[in-house]
Amino acid sequence: MNEYLEFKKELESLKTNDKKPTLLLHSCCGPCSSYTLMFLKEYFDITIYYYNPNIYPSSEFDKRLEEQKKVIDIVDKNIKLIFRKEDYTIYEDAVKGLEHLGELSKRCYNCYLFRLEELCKVANDLGFDYFTTTLSISPYKSSKWINEIGNNLNSKTSKYLYSDFKKDSGYQKSIAFCKEYDIYRQDYCGCKSSIKEHMERLEKKAQIS
User: Fold this and answer.
1) What is the pairing mode between strands 45-51 and 80-84?
2) Contacts of 67 (CB under 8 A, 6+ apart)
3) In what order do the strands lie in the sheet with 159-160?
4) What region, left, alpha or beta, does residue 169 occupy, with left being phi > 0 and alpha being psi -120 to 50 degrees?
5) For residue 25, what are the β-bridge partners?
6) Which is it for strands 130-133 and 22-26: parallel, antiparallel or unpaired?
7) What does pTM read for this prediction?
8) 39: helix, coil or strand?
């Protein structure tokens, strides 16, 4: 079964509804939300949930939040935004003992997991029809893991929406959007480990050149 084609069919079926269903969309950052919002706003009444305790330092969290607001203003001012700024220790507890592992490891899986669990809880508590995340737009994130987690989450009111927004050149479109509107695109995922990994890549690149 081609899950992406099934997903597209489900979206088209929603057009027959008299009213758009509500979607709580977890956003990891403004750039990743840009194409995702443009794609989904035709089908859903969207509220963004900006929940990312993995972002370090605190000033970076705030900077990315401001870019998220900017993206919303550009794409559709009717899109709503809720956010929670939590202590970085929430992330540290989620990946304890896994800090040494690289990107696309169990460390990242656990980071997806605790944020999606929170997303599901809030979607259920607030009565959203659907919930999903922008995370899958990145080629550096595992869509397989994201959808595995999402489909395993239980919500009485909300349905998990399949997520692989890198399809149809979604990632490239998000880059073009950021260039056109001068949106800040971070050069590391968010956590301390990803900062270290980014610096190591820069050092290797400098040695080669």
Assistant:
1) parallel
2) 29, 30, 31, 183, 184
3) 80-84, 45-51, 22-26, 130-133, 159-160
4) left
5) 48, 132
6) parallel
7) 0.96
8) helix
pLDDT given for residue 135 in this prediction: 98
Q: Which pLDDT band holds residue 155 (cuts at 50, 70, 90)?
A: confident
Instruction: Find the mean pLDDT for residues 156-184.
Output: 97
Cα–Cα distances (Å) from 127 to 25, 90, 110, 131, 132, in that order, read 13, 25, 25, 10, 14
Say if residue 1's pLDDT is above 80.
Answer: no
For every residue of 62-118, DSSP letters joined together read HHHHHHHHHHHHHH-TT-EEEEE---THHHHHHTTT-TTS-TTSHHHHHHHHHHHHH
Rounded to an integer, what distance in angstroms lies between the CA atom of residue 158 and that of residue 15?
A: 18
Q: What gap in Å lies between CA 205 and CA 81, rounded to an integer?
A: 38
Instruction: Find where tokens 């989620």 sit.
Output: 94
DSSP label at 21? Answer: P
CA separation, residue 163 to residues 6, 39, 79 (Å): 11, 12, 19
Angstrom distance (rounded) from CA 178 to CA 205: 24
- pLDDT at res. 209: 67
In the numeric block, which tokens belong to residue 184? 């800040």
Asked whether the predicted pLDDT for residue 90 surpasses 80, the reply is yes
The Cα 41–Cα 199 span in angstroms is 36
- Tell the residue number behind the tokens 């990891």, with chain if given: 28
Q: Tokens for 30? A: 């403004």
